[in-house]
Amino acid sequence: MAWPHLRLLLILLCGVAHTSIYAQNATLAFSSPATIGSKLAVRWVGPGEQYDLVVINRPADDDQAKALNSASIISGRNPVEVVMPDVPGEYQLRYYSRSAKAVIGRAPVMVVDVETTLEAPASVQMGSPIDIAWTGPGNSYEQIQLHPAGAAADAKALATATVLGKSPLRMNLPELQGEFELRYVTRQAKRILATRPITLFGVAASLQAPEQAAIGETIEIRWEGPGNQYDLIALYPAGAAEGSKAAASASIVSKINPVPMRLPEQAGAYELRYQTARSSQILATRPIRIGAVAAALDAPAQATAGTLIEVRWEGPGNNYDRVGVYPPEADDQARALTSATILSRKNPLDLKLPERNGRYELRYLTAQSSEILARREILVQPAGRLAVVFEREGEIRGALGGAAVELILDASGSMLQRTADGSRRIEIARRVLADLVTDHLADGSQFALRVFGHKAANQCRTDLEIPLAALDRAAATSAIGQVNAMNLAKTPIADSLAKVPADLATASGPKTVVLITDGEETCDGDPAEVIKGLRAQGLDVQVSIVGFAIDDAELKATFSTWAELGGGSYFDAGSAEELAKSLRTVISGPFRVLDGRGQVVAKGVIGGAEIVLPAGTYSVETIAAKPRVIDSVIVQAGEVTRAAF
Q1: Number of helices and strands (H, E) in the chain?
Q2: Superfamily of domain 296-381 in the CATH hierarchy
Q3: Separation CA 53–CA 181 (nearest Å)
Q4: pTM of the shown model
Q5: How far apart are CA 42 and CA 45, in angstroms?
Q6: Dihedral angle of Cα 562, 564, 566, 567, to the nearest 10 degrees
Q7: What are the beta bridge partners of residue 214?
Q8: Is the peptide bond before 33 cis (omega within 30 degrees of 0)?
Q9: For residue 405, what pLDDT band results from cuts at 50, 70 and 90?
Q10: Which CATH superfamily is domain 22-112 in?
Q11: Which of 417, 436, 575, 587 is spaced 20 to 30 Å from 401 by Cα?
């Protein structure tokens, strides 16, 4: 038991080195030979202290020489992985003790080469991607490189692909022509283990496009050339130096041919250029002249404040060109008071006038640069508003009499969404419609139900579920109960409205159509044009819209415009109660406004939106089998006049 004390005494008295007293031997075990650059698992027996090292060196290197590679022992990890050099030969693994600051174990290891090959096409189009099959060490971050044929071993590569253990590798070739060489290069010593020659060839390129086009026009450009991803067709002013900023451009993606390009809104001589994606080489050019287009606006010389007018236009007619209303003194950069946007060359446009009377200017503006191409003055006359209401709620039911009613129900995928109380929108719609036909439609009403979105996903299908006939409350309730929304179904609002004349063909007298929807048109239709067409046909129809659970203010404004075009009202319903009240209001109170000559000048819904009218005296009558009339309704400019039934 005295030995520990004796050893401590010897250290103190004789100054014997701490390392010589605590020196231990370590042993190392592993598989040999190892392949170049590989991670060799080395099992050790030794102190195993935190951050001891297993290192690899050349046999002739002394113990203080910098290790070629090393692995730390952390938390007793065993084995550790040591990366082998990527030059073959005899090496030595060593166990280095940090506390002893000495090598306390060593073992020889042989590192050997790995047969390496490359397989790739002998000849490839410049700038294209290629797949390179390889065999070899396959150590992470080794590279396959592309060099000019005969380039020095240490030359900078023109292109690289990094080995991450998978074959083949994809390499994006440079936009160069000539003779080149693929090389498999090790990570550490940059040894070239295999080579393969490859030829990169160019491709004839050309461009086909109109010789002349209008400002802002979208043209199609047909091309021949490499067609590599993100090659570019760019437009420059004629004679522009290489490297200049393009006036417009279109990328080649997935070899789409032809590619569309929207031209700038400045007339002049230009040049189309085919440019490669990475080096911007110009492979082909084609001249094009962009010319100005005559523009004009045709609209009423005067109209009533707050009403919709039709504006016919001449001009480029490019998508998102627009017609706006401005004070005549407004500068060219001013913001429009109201505006209408051109889409798909729609002509005429429906333009809402400002609420305030006065002289204004209509302007045609281009989409991109807001250049003003045409102007026209308009006198906006003073207007008043007419609010037609029910004096007693109990009189709502039955006011419509025997007029025909068609409900158009949106049952597309969005109607499967849940409201705040957890109910699906379509469930609420079914309950509300069932209550409507059971308790609120007048006896003797002619009734029809059209539904879209409930029978086919990814389609624009619309179906007449209840053909027009005298209301059968039980049958209608049953049919409504069987309607369910379908996920991914689309919203063909325009097509559903277009079928109204056929749906109501057997009805005589006035007709009321109510669209119940929670979303926008998704079948490329134009509901506004369809609604205008219904009235242009002379069909005595009134179209109202009930928006259910809609948050988009722009969509609400669009629905309001549609309803105004249809002589009806827009109702915004955020809950089951609001939906039910909106529908009862629509079907109970359609009315029309007649001027002093007995001409119908407006239509609306009792309890719905206010009607904008020029100052004057009017009569208001319900649209029903037995109409009620309010005579001598005086509308004054700038005021709201109330007429109550």
Answers
A1: 9, 45
A2: Immunoglobulins (2.60.40.10)
A3: 41
A4: 0.62
A5: 10
A6: 170
A7: 291
A8: yes
A9: very high
A10: Immunoglobulins (2.60.40.10)
A11: 575
